[in-house]
């Protein structure tokens, strides 16, 4: 797979995109991939606050600040984008059960609805391994429900990513975390069903964008994400 040729071919299409959740770990990694590869004519970040960047490569980004509790009032932010990436998400520990559902279901679904109405043809959703609308676990049930409800919106192409444990290469001073992360990174290369580097998820989302989808709705489980995420790596 010639990634450079794919990028150049996609660039000629003059497409635009938006990213939801660019302040989160996956969103940051995804934005970096997209900016470095320069595959879109315009990149819009949609979020609750303005983000600041020191690197001049980010100076042409468009930022739309919205109130997720009143998204209908910000429909304009979702108009005119060919591709949408949704990396929105929180945890029950951070937001409580009600807050988790509001973010991971309500905000995500409403954003998808506005994106579809605004002309978005390819919608990417970061979900989770084990997502299942019939699950007895709130987290997995919520993820599965929003997948199904976005599918019903009828995007021309809907890509769902179900990564396992996300490995974030943070700088921290806790030796135990450093050792654990290095161990999991080593394990992920041997047993990619257990965990995955967050940079691989971002790369997979970009590489998948460059390919012609064979199905209207595609679900990429952790191993498929891992394999796509390796494309373009330097040997």
Automatic annotation (TrEMBL):
Protein's GO biological process: import into nucleus
NAD(P)-binding domain location: 21-170
SUPFAM superfamilies, alphabetized: NAD(P)-binding Rossmann-fold domains
Superkingdom per UniProt: Eukaryota
Keyword list, A-Z: Acetylation, Disulfide bond, NADP
InterPro entries: NAD(P)-bd_dom (IPR016040), NAD(P)-bd_dom_sf (IPR036291)
Matches recorded under Gene3D superfamilies: NAD(P)-binding Rossmann-like Domain
Gene Ontology annotations for the cellular component aspect, listed alphabetically: cytoplasm
GO molecular function terms noted in the UniProt entry: catalytic activity
Subunit structure of this chain's protein: Monomer. Forms homodimers during oxidative stress. Interacts (via N-terminus) with elongation factor EEF1A1 (via middle-region); the interaction is direct and competes with EEF1A1 binding to guanyl-nucleotide exchange factor EEF1B2, thereby inhibiting GDP for GTP exchange and reactivation of EEF1A1. Interacts with nuclear transport receptors XPO4, IPO5/RANBP5, IPO7, IPO9 and KPNB1 as well as GCN1L1/GCN1 and LRPPRC probably through their HEAT repeats. Binds NCOA5/CIA.
Protein name stated in the entry: Protein HTATIP2
Organism of provenance: Carassius auratus (Goldfish)
């Amino acid at each position: 797979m010639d990634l450079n040729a794919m990028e150049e071919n996609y660039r000629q299409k003059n497409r635009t995109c938006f990213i939801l959740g660019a302040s989160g770990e996956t969103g940051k990694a995804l934005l970096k991939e997209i900016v470095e590869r320069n595959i879109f004519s315009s990149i819009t970040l949609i979020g609750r606050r303005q983000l600041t960047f020191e690197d001049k490569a980010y100076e042409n980004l468009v930022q739309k600040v919205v109130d997720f509790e009143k998204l209908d009032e910000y429909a304009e932010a979702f108009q005119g984008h060919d591709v949408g990436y949704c990396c929105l998400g929180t945890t029950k520990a951070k937001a409580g059960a009600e807050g988790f559902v509001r973010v991971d279901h309500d905000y995500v679904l409403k954003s998808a609805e506005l994106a579809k109405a605004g002309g978005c043809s390819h919608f990417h959703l970061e979900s989770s391994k084990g997502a299942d609308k019939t699950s007895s676990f709130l987290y997995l049930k919520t993820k599965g429900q929003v997948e199904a409800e976005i599918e019903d919106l009828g995007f021309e192409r809907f890509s769902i990513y179900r990564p396992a444990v996300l490995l974030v290469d943070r700088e921290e001073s806790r030796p135990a975390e450093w050792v654990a992360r290095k161990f999991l990174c080593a394990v992920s290369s041997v047993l990619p069903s257990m965990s995955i580097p967050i940079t691989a998820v971002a790369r997979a989302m970009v590489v998948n964008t460059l390919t012609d989808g064979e199905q209207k709705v595609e679900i990429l489980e952790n191993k498929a994400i891992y394999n796509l995420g390796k494309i373009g790596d330097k040997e």
